Amino acid sequence: MNERSAFSLAGIPVVLVLVVAIPATIAAAVFGVDANPSAPLSTIVPAALVMAVLLFATAGFFQVQPNQGQVLQLFGRYAGTVRDEGLRWTNPFYSKRAVSLRVRNFESGRLKVNDADGNPIEIAAVVVWQVVDTAEAVFCVDDYENFVQIQSESALRQMAQSYPYDAHEGDAPSLRSHGDEVNAHLRREIHQRLGKAGVDVVEARISHLAYAQEIAQAMLQRQQAGAIVAARGRIVEGAVSMVEMALAELGKRGVVDLDNERRAAMVSNLLVVLCGERGTQPVVNTGTLYTG
User: How far apart are alpha carbons 227 and 238 in whole angstroms?
Assistant: First the structure.
């Protein structure tokens, strides 16, 4: 079932017609009775019927607010949707239901799921959505707002199981490092589920991401260890470059002529100084490296 336009007229002209017609009907009935007092019913009954029809016609008025659609039904059958703003008039027998077309959002609860590596994590998302087809939203699902919430949480669970929390090797996509890719995947998953409800997903993004409490401390230690290893690697790489540069400059300028044993001792001392966590204490060597 798809949305289609329903019959309606601008309300102000219809109001003007009724404002003129109702007093005119009353006046005609009064003058008719005065003109024919012997048979008043012949004038009153038709006037009463016309008055009843005019009063019943007032039930056809309804208002359409900006970014709103009025879904019209005739004895249970879908008659169409009116999106024209302002006061409108339609068949008085139509029943009306307002459906908001405004952009709305909600934040899911914190879900506890397993990522692609099997680690328990807590995740939540913010979903921005709006109704684009009022007929599908009203007639294809029972409660489209509840449907959006449940299907969004289902899609969030499915997406979270497709990625690890953190990529420990290489540049593989992960929940923590590839936010744009993960959010795009989440939006596709939700949009696919909500298409039958006449709802378009404007945006979906993760609002909360953390390891579950039972493994949070262990994973924190793992992250800290990884950071320490990475930092140590940078320090050692820089220290080796500095030692290499120092030896090259000493040899280039002829400051000292070092054999292999003295070169090894100098390299060892420099690496200790550059890679050590604490400040070093200088030791003055007044002897020789060689035993006589």
Answer: 17
Q: Mind listing the pLDDT tens digit for each residue in 177-194?
A: 888 999 999 999 999 999
Question: Comparing C-alpha atoms, which of 129, 136, 175, 180 is closest to residue 156?
Answer: 175
Query: Distance between CA atoms of 241 and 247, rounded to whole angstroms?
Result: 10
- Reported pTM: 0.68
d(C-alpha 4, C-alpha 1), whole Å = 9
Q: Of 23, 140, 150, 134, whose CA–CA distance to 79 is shortest?
A: 134
Instruction: Report how far residue 30's alpha carbon sits from residue 43's, in angstroms, rounded to the nearest whole number.
Output: 8
Neighbours of 93 (CB within 10 A): 13
Instruction: Read off the pLDDT band of 81 (50, 70, 90).
Output: very high
SS (H, E, C) 213-282: HHHHHHHHHHHHHHHHHHHHHHHHHHHHHHHHHHHHHHHHHCCCCCCHHHHHHHHHHHHHHHHCCCCCCC
Q: How far is CA 199 from CA 72, 103, 190, 192, in A?
A: 19, 10, 10, 10
CA 41 from chain centre, in angstroms, equals 67
Confidence category of residue 15, pLDDT binned at 50, 70, 90 = very high
